[in-house]
Amino acid sequence: MSAIEKIIPYYTYEDYKHWEGQWELIDGLPFAMSPSPIYNHQLVASNLLALFWTALEKCSRCKVLQPLDYIVKNDTVLQPDMIVVCNEVKNDYLDFAPSLVCEVVSPSTALKDRHTKYNIYQSQKIPYYIMVSPKAEEVEVYELSETGNYILARKGGNTRFSFRFEDCEAEIEFGRIWP
């Protein structure tokens, strides 16, 4: 019996930027961002974005953005559902860690959001990671501890949390994001 060589594709940002459609790239492996998010997912994501935008509109440093390419490293490009950035973005993509990332979890992305992306965001020392589950109407807010690990700071559907970004603060009432 002969050994069959397995060929595993490996891509970088140079490859990624020429692809059509929406993709993420994790450790050189492509992940299609399809099908497009469903109505409820988009509504919850839009409501969350609006709450953060309103809470931070007087902050001159912090910006709230919808999916934007976040280049973690040459072979890892992510598109969080929402990010808060408190530094100047000088490119068409983000090449530094944001202050907050939010993923709206769907059945097709739950494993990746809860494990792979969680570990990447933690390793990048992103101060806050929010996972929103529209189906369960539940929010999990993870905050980076002094040890460099995420701790579950808040969990629930109707919960409030106060986020601190350098000179700015955003008090978010998560119960307002549900349809």
Descriptive account of the structure:
This protein has 179 residues and is α+β, with helices and mostly antiparallel strands. 20% of the residues lie in helices and 33% in strands. The chain is built from three helices and twelve strands, in the order αββαβββββαβββββ. The strands form four sheets. It has a six-stranded mixed sheet with strand order 3-6-7-8-9-10, sandwiched between helices. Strands 1-2 form a two-stranded antiparallel ribbon. The radius of gyration is 17 Å and the shape is globular. The mean pLDDT is 94.
Question: Which overall shape is indicated by the principal axes computed on the Cα atoms?
Answer: globular
Terminal residue distance? 59 Å
Number of helices: 3
From the coordinates shown, what is the CATH architecture? Alpha-Beta Complex
> What is the C-level CATH assignment?
Alpha Beta
Strand order in space, largest sheet: 3-6-7-8-9-10
Give me the CATH superfamily: tt1808, chain A
The portion of residues assigned to helices is 10-25%
> Which regions contain 5 or more consecutive residues with pLDDT less than 50?
none
Total strand count, please?
Answer: 12
Task: Give keywords.
179 residues, 3 helices, 20% helix, 6-stranded mixed sheet, alpha+beta, tt1808, chain A
Can you summarize this structure?
20% of the residues lie in helices and 33% in strands. It has 179 residues and is of the alpha+beta class.
Reconstruct the topology from this structure.
Layout: H1 13-16, E1 23-26, E2 29-32, H2 39-56, E3 63-65, E4 70-73, E5 76-78, E6 82-85, E7 100-104, H3 110-123, E8 128-133, E9 138-144, E10 150-156, E11 160-165, E12 168-173
Parallel strand pairs: 7-8
Antiparallel strand pairs: 1-2, 3-6, 4-5, 6-7, 8-9, 9-10, 11-12
